[in-house]
Amino acid sequence: xxxxxxxxxxxxxxxxxxxxxxxxxxxxxxxxxxxxxxxxxxxxxxxxxxxxxxxxxxxxxxxxxxxxxxxxxxxxxxxxxxxxxxxxxxxxxxxxxxxxxxxxxxxxxxxxxxxxxxxxxxxxxxxxxxxxxxxxxxxxxxxxxxxxxxxxxxxxxxxxxxxxxxxxxxxxxxxxxxxxxxxxxxxxxxxxxxxxxxxxxxxxxxxxxxx
Amino acid sequence: xxxxxxxxxxxxxxxxxxxxxxxxxxxxxxxxxxxxxxxxxxxxxxxxxxxxxxxxxxxxxxxxxxxxxxxxxxxxxxxxxxxxxxxxxxxxxxxxxxxxxxxxxxxxxxxxxxxxxxxxxxxxxxxxxxxxxxxxxxxxxxxxxxxxxxxxxxxxxxxxxxxxxxxxxxxxxxxxxxxxxxxxxxxxxxxxxxxxxxxxxxxxxxxxxxxxxxxxxxxxxxxxxxxxxxxxxxxxxxxxxxxxxxxxxxxxxxxxxxxxxxxxxxxxxxxxxxxxxxxxxxxxxxxxxxxxxxxxxxxxxxxxxxxxxxxxxxxxxxxxxxxxxxxxxxxxxxxxxxxxxxxxxxx
Lengths: 211, 347
What we know:
The complex is a heterodimer of chains A (about 210) and B (about 350). Chain A is α+β, with helices and mostly antiparallel strands and about 210 residues long. Chain A has helices at about 20-95, 100-110, 150-165, and strands spanning about 115-125, 135-145, 170-175, 180, 185, 195, 195-205. Chain B has a single domain (about 5-345), classed as ATPase, nucleotide binding domain (Nucleotidyltransferase, domain 5, 2-Layer Sandwich), CATH 3.30.420.40. Chain B is built from 10 helices and 13 strands. Chain B has a 5-stranded mixed beta sheet with strand order 3-2-1-4-8, with helices on both faces. In chain B, strands 11-10-9-12-13 form a 5-stranded mixed beta sheet, with helices on both faces. In chain B, α6 packs antiparallel against α8 (about 245-270). The interface of A and B includes residues 10, 16 and 21 of A.
């Protein structure tokens, strides 16, 4: 049991601590406010710096962009050239079985037609699809025909060329302008007069295979 | 209470384990330091200091010099008790519930002088049915402010302010429980101008009386009767060369009558018999006090040492204190009240 009639007023009570709680709280509040201001200012300054850096980087990029585009184009060109070189190298190492082709051709020539020349050109061109280079051939044929229906003989040859598989994919077979013409009539030993027709043909095709 | 201290009031409710008890306003200033550890209270230090002159109620407001305590007496908190002839203490039985306390006119109940500003407080000791037993006390506002101003800086900080009459009850109570098995007992604390009388029944305060006489009245009586200097009076009272018992008996008569009335009141009301009378305080001419009390009450009073109520450290008492131990009941009681209040809160 205690007998304690305390006459001390609330406002007379104080902490024995050497640290004043009120002062400490006020100091803490001030320090916190100062810290917040400092952090805010730091963040603001940093954001300004970052903004400046972004601007500088953007300007630098703008100045470098043409060079970059040029580099890209050069790289693309380089890739194309490398591909070309690879193909050329391939071309150089590959051979077409011309003998077989000529044999096949011989079999399909109508008897009324006499070939006078045959010339094959190799065409190397860039494919439109961009898949690389393609190689096609152009065969120039010239010959002579006679008989009752020389035009039909030429058409037969054209048809053979178009349908025969030995040449692979035939792109076009045509008679160049003014390349189908009548030759001067000649008289044979038996005294008969013959009229020969001279023609030229161009056949563009891709060979079936290389060796 | 300002808002800031209010918010941190919870922090102050934590138990105090180290307290300085001060008894100011008397002939000397008595200071004790008590520590509480594991529910055991220990006396760390006790000392006497020069008198702090209590300001007069009618005079100008006085601002005292801050009380600087030596290191052994420096605790964080202090319980101040003020010994003042103008203080008023009453043990009251008030009809009605707790709500009736708000309606009481304490100025009237405490018999306070008209026109003077007092600081009044009370504590409910027991609530029996529709009756409240309260201990009420008051001291002049000027003296209360003066006492608080003694500890206005640094440590210790005031935690409690009491009248000496209420503070000393805690020392009585502890002594009774610790050494006298709570037998019905009467405690007499003799002050220089005021003497406190408390009767305990079954360990609880059953009666309190404030008698407006003290050791100074005895001194003055002997001085006047024999025409001697005041300095010589203590010697006269202590030896048997001059028989001063007759004038002292006359001077003490009103006080002795109070004792008789107090005993009769308690014995009749509580149906008990007071078995012990314990005496402490400014016992100048202790044998006269004992003699006259014995003659009147039929019980030989025991002079007891309040500092022995609690165990003390080896060098707790200064040389000044030796022989003056009985004067520390108020200081010890003030410190105990704060320590024990905190103990109660923690429970």
